[in-house]
Amino acid sequence: MSVQIKICGIREAHALEAVIAEKADFGGFIFHPPSPRNLSLEEATALITQAQGRIQRVGLIVNPGDDFLDKLFATAKLDALQLQGSESPQRIAEIRERYGVKVWKAIAVATKEDVRRASDYLGSADFILFDAKTPPGALPGGLGLRFDWNLLADVNLSVPWGLAGGLHAQNVAEAISLTKAPMVDVCSGTEISPGMKDVDKIAAFCKAARSV
Ligand SMILES: O=C(O)c1ccccc1N[C@@H]1O[C@H](COP(=O)(O)O)[C@@H](O)[C@H]1O
């Protein structure tokens, strides 16, 4: 089976069309005000409706409270939530149960110990995404930073998983070959500047990921 692809940080209708045209598996929509890719509920609802039945829609959020999630799920239909903060396994189980949505847990990786932390989420998360750990005080993702892919050499999880962090068209094939990641996730590697997607970069990324 070929690698699955998620293009994250979609903000514009034409970028979403490009992602769908390239047959990416997942489109990511970010709800995190400090991010240059942050969407209002109104903007997100328009994109999420445009995407319905055409691509799986993943909402990315950091340590969300129920107030925000109640509003989000009242207006937008998401296929999965990607949690990118310090959410505990208990909190993940609670969100899954309360909103009836698949929950992905992003694990920030710099060391082998970080990779091992993924096992804490088996039984609560539906999907594990290994992403690069970012510096204290910085955004918890979307900075184009990568980690040592060799750390994933013996990953063997009972849930699906993916690789993110600093991927782009020029390195994604090597990343897949080395890690055997079944899914790859990219944000800044498909942009010309933070938050501005580029259709050629989206196409090049998908082509390179499928070349392995
Ligand atoms: O992209 C963001 O702005 C972002 C903000 C807060 C948390 C996560 C974010 N992005 C996630 O990080 C990965 C990797 O990004 P990149 O490819 O290194 O730029 C991205 O795919 C999102 O899942």
Which key terms come to mind for this protein?
alpha/beta; about 210 residues; single chain; TrpF_fam; TIM Barrel; 8-stranded parallel β-barrel; two-stranded antiparallel ribbon; binds the ligand O=C(O)c1ccccc1N[C@@H]1O[C@H](COP(=O)(O)O)[C@@H](O)[C@H]1O; 7 helices; isomerase; about 20% strand
Can you put this structure into words, describing what you see?
By secondary structure, the chain is of the alpha/beta class. It has a single domain (4-209), classed as Alpha-Beta Barrel (TIM Barrel), CATH 3.20.20. 31% of the residues lie in helices and 22% in strands. The protein has 7 helices and 10 strands. It has helices at 13-21, 41-51, 66-75, 89-99, 112-116, 172-179, 199-209; strands spanning 4-7, 26-31, 56-61, 80-83, 102-109, 127-132, 161-164, 183-186, 191-193, 196-197. Strands 1-2-3-4-5-6-7-8 form an 8-stranded parallel β-barrel, surrounded by 5 helices. β4 (80-83), α4 and β5 (102-109) form a beta-alpha-beta unit. The longest helix is centred in the N-terminal third of the chain and has 11 residues, at 41-51. It starts with a strand and ends with a helix. The mean pLDDT is 97. It binds ligand LGQLAAA5. The site of ligand LGQLAAA5 has 27 residues, from β2 and β8. Belongs to the TrpF family.
